[in-house]
Amino acid sequence: MDKKIFISVIGESNSSPEIYKLAEEVGAEIAKAGAVLVSGGLKGVMEASCKGAKSAGGTTIGILPGSKREEGNAYIDYPIITGVGYARNKFVVKTGHVVIAVGGHYGTLSEIAFALGYKLPVVGLKTWQMIDHYGQMVKDVHYTTTPKEAVALALKLAREARPEEPSEFKK
Asked: What average pLDDT does the chain have?
């Protein structure tokens, strides 16, 4: 049984320099923690997080929307070719034990919704503020202010969500 934590990093493909830097730091923190980074494999937050993970010696998986490996960014170790377009967002989310949203546009919003629907923990860093139909903040999205905080919380939530895992997973 695989004991590694898989963290899906989602976010905008056309990111500002600030968001790109935050995503790169998130990726590096994921690698330092020994977790596997999962992304949509393209540019923006996806590229930045993978770049950060690779710079810290981590492993990356890119779940690509198209039919060609070459569409993925240069920092992907394992490209997964889906050919299903945006429907691949479900695969990106479901592959992770936890999701970190950095920035984001409508594709990110859909991924957050999928994660919440699948009861996966979601950590937000400068991303959508989720309000329910009563005007209350959605408590299932855990907002943080730094990449280090986001990854530490993601790891904690992933461990809590998987109590059936062997004790080695909880280290």
From this structure: 93
- Positions of E strands within 12-159: 36-39, 59-64, 78-81, 98-102, 122-125, 141-144
* Strand blocks (E) in 40-110: 59-64, 78-81, 98-102
Residue 153 gets which letter from DSSP? H
* Amino acid sitting at position 23: A
For the chain, list the domains and their CATH numbers.
6-170 (3.40.50.450)
Buried-exposed string 45-82: b where 16+ CB fall within 10 A, e elsewhere: bbbbbbbbbbeeebbbbbbbbbeeeebbbebbeebbbb
Q: Is 162 exposed, middle or buried (0-12, 13-18, 19+ CB in 10 A)?
A: middle
The residues, ordered by sequence, that sit 6+ positions from 106 with a Cβ below 8 Å of its Cβ are none
71 vs 64: CA distance, rounded Å: 7
With a cut of 70, say whether residue 69 has pLDDT above it: yes
2 phi-psi bin (left φ>0, alpha ψ -120 to 50, beta other): beta
pLDDT score of 171 more than 80: no
